[in-house]
């Protein structure tokens, strides 16, 4: 084969390979990214169910963290025990919940006799025994109340008898008489003051009545005087009108006589 043919063949081969490369470059091949299809939910907003589940997981994790927190810094015997809280976060609000305390710290220790008495009282008994105990207790209580009432009545009777029979001394009699005199005098003065007050009230009332009556009479006289003056003024006006009318009538008569001549 000649060199020319060889060179021509090589040129033709290079031209075909370049054309194939261009065609392959223009045809894009699909590249597999993942065998399963996934969608980013945040692009479309978080669903309500997923948000609720996330909040529940967060609350449960916070509760576990508070419960598992070591109490190394707590005092061994504090003077006042502080209450422990757990923060509960919900959709609507945030609140602190008090952790229940150990009930053993408030236990009461009693002696053996008290325990025996309480256990004996709490034991089940027949109905007749319970009724007998109740009636016996009521009878004892009634007897105690009767005795107290009897003693109280006896003391009251003794006190009244002592007051009646006790002789009054001279000082007591004098003090009693002075007190009675002062009381009597106070009543008399009060009666006199009441009489004086009544008399003054009557005088004031009479003065008011007279003043009102005088004012009414004066007003009546003033009205009567004004009415008389008004009547007099009207009479004068009527007289003037009458005189004017007579004068006009005389002038008319005179004109008629003049015209008749």
TrEMBL record:
<feature type="compositionally biased region" description="Basic and acidic residues">
    <location>
        <begin position="125"/>
        <end position="148"/>
    </location>
</feature>
<dbReference type="InterPro" id="IPR033253">
    <property type="entry name" value="CFAP45"/>
</dbReference>
<keyword id="KW-0966">Cell projection</keyword>
<protein>
    <recommendedName>
        <fullName>Cilia- and flagella-associated protein 45</fullName>
    </recommendedName>
</protein>
<dbReference type="GO" id="GO:0031514">
    <property type="term" value="C:motile cilium"/>
</dbReference>
<keyword id="KW-0969">Cilium</keyword>
<comment type="similarity">
    <text>Belongs to the CFAP45 family.</text>
</comment>
<keyword id="KW-0175">Coiled coil</keyword>
<dbReference type="Pfam" id="PF13868">
    <property type="entry name" value="TPH"/>
</dbReference>
<feature type="domain" description="Trichohyalin-plectin-homology">
    <location>
        <begin position="191"/>
        <end position="260"/>
    </location>
</feature>
<feature type="region of interest" description="Disordered">
    <location>
        <begin position="120"/>
        <end position="148"/>
    </location>
</feature>
<feature type="compositionally biased region" description="Low complexity">
    <location>
        <begin position="1"/>
        <end position="27"/>
    </location>
</feature>
<keyword id="KW-0282">Flagellum</keyword>
<feature type="region of interest" description="Disordered">
    <location>
        <begin position="1"/>
        <end position="79"/>
    </location>
</feature>
<feature type="compositionally biased region" description="Basic and acidic residues">
    <location>
        <begin position="55"/>
        <end position="68"/>
    </location>
</feature>
<dbReference type="InterPro" id="IPR043597">
    <property type="entry name" value="TPH_dom"/>
</dbReference>
């Amino acid at each position: 084969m000649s060199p020319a043919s060889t060179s021509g063949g090589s040129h033709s081969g290079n031209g075909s390979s370049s054309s194939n490369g261009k065609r392959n470059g223009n045809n894009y091949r699909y590249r597999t990214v993942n065998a399963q299809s996934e969608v980013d939910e945040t692009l479309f907003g978080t669903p309500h169910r997923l948000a609720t589940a996330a909040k529940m997981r967060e609350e449960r994790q916070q509760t576990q963290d508070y419960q598992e927190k070591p109490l190394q810094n707590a005092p061994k015997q504090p003077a006042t025990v502080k209450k422990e809280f757990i923060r509960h976060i919900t959709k609507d609000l945030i609140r602190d919940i008090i952790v229940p305390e150990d009930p053993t710290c408030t236990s009461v220790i009693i002696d053996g006799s008290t325990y025996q008495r309480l256990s004996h009282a709490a034991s089940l008994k027949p109905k007749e025994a319970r009724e007998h105990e109740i009636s016996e207790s009521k009878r004892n209580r009634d007897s105690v109340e009767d005795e107290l009432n009897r003693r109280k009545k006896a003391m009251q009777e003794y006190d009244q008898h002592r007051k009646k029979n006790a002789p009054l001394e001279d000082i007591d009699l004098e003090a009693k008489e002075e007190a009675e005199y002062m009381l009597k005098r106070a009543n008399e003065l009060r009666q006199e003051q009441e009489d004086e007050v009544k008399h003054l009230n009557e005088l004031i009332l009479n003065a008011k009545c007279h003043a009102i009556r005088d004012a009414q009479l004066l007003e009546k006289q003033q009205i009567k005087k004004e009415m008389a003056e008004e009547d007099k003024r009207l009479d004068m006006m009527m007289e003037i009108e009458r005189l004017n009318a007579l004068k006009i009538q005389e002038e008319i008569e005179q004109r008629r006589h003049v015209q008749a001549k």
